[in-house]
Write a structure and sequence with these properties.
The protein starts with 21 loop residues before the first helix and ends with a helix. The protein contains six helices and ten strands, in the order H-E-E-E-E-H-H-E-E-E-E-H-H-E-E-H. A five-stranded antiparallel β-sheet has the order 8-1-2-9-10, with helices on one face. The chain has a five-stranded antiparallel β-sheet with strand order 3-4-5-6-7. It is of the alpha+beta class. The radius of gyration is 19 Å and the shape is globular. The protein is 38% helix and 24% strand.
């Protein structure tokens, strides 16, 4: 049997003899070609950080956002194809509105993440549609379950995490996240740590220009989803870059 998808990658509803669905794997590859996105569940809430790579110096800062609000207490971060991500965010907002109209209360984070995963999975079942080329990190804080972090993948896989990473440098980012004592970190402290993670895994040789976008839902934000204040992001990024430069200088001195 061959691992090449020849003849078995023409439809997202076709399995190869090895039991693989190549169209879904290709969708995952589009996520891996995207900037890195990380999330962490802390003692007082959840923080999401996304590396948004600029492909042109003429792009305006703040355009093509990768972090979004879908409900007062829920935020979403996107890694992968942005147009696909916008559709996922729109679906989240639609589900949140529908739930509020039917039940008269905000949608729980667990319910919204599950509905998004089911919607995403539908696009892997039919030959006339393609899988979403993006993953979504869902951050929520509700009274029933407290702070929650979920990730929905192009296959429709849904997992709940204490910390997770996806995108171009997900393996390196996971290694960095595993070193953190998340149960002891506050969200304000996590902003510094996640900024450090993104800076450390960023590839300056290929993607020199990038913006760091962050969203949190925590006690400090009143349990509402908000963008992390820009001055806090800038301070954390500068501290991380300065530390990385010092480490690189020390390595150069050791080599000499």
């Amino acid at each position: 049997m061959t691992s090449i998808g020849t003849g078995y990658d023409l439809s997202s509803s076709t399995f190869s003899p090895e039991g693989r669905v190549f169209q879904t794997e290709y969708a995952m590859k589009s996520v891996e070609n995207s900037g890195t996105a990380v999330g962490a569940r802390c003692s007082d809430g959840v923080v999401i950080a996304v590396e948004k790579v600029y492909h042109s110096r003429m792009m305006m800062k703040g355009s093509l956002r990768r972090v979004h609000f879908v409900e007062k207490h829920i935020g979403v971060g996107i890694a992968g194809l942005l147009p696909d991500g916008r559709q996922m965010v729109s679906k989240c907002r639609e589900e949140a509105t529908q739930y509020r109209e039917v039940y008269g209360e905000p949608v729980p984070g667990r319910v919204l993440a599950d509905r998004l995963a089911r919607f995403t999975h539908l696009y892997t079942l039919y030959w006339h549609v393609r899988s979403f080329g993006c993953s979504a990190l869902v951050a929520a804080y509700d009274g029933a379950e407290g702070p929650q972090l979920y990730m929905v993948e192009p296959s429709g896989m849904l997992m709940r995490y204490n910390a997770c990473a996806t995108g171009k440098a997900k393996q390196q980012a996971k290694t960095e996240l595993e070193k953190l004592k998340l149960g002891e970190l506050t969200c304000r402290e996590a902003v510094t740590e996640l900024a450090k993670t993104i800076v450390n895994v960023h590839d300056n040789t290929k993607d020199k220009l990038y913006e760091l976008e962050m969203l949190w839902v925590c006690e400090e934000s009143g349990r509402t989803a908000q963008f992390v204040p820009q001055e806090l992001i800038d301070e954390a990024r500068k501290a991380a870059e300065d530390e990385k430069d010092r480490e690189d200088d020390d390595d150069d001195m050791d080599d000499a």
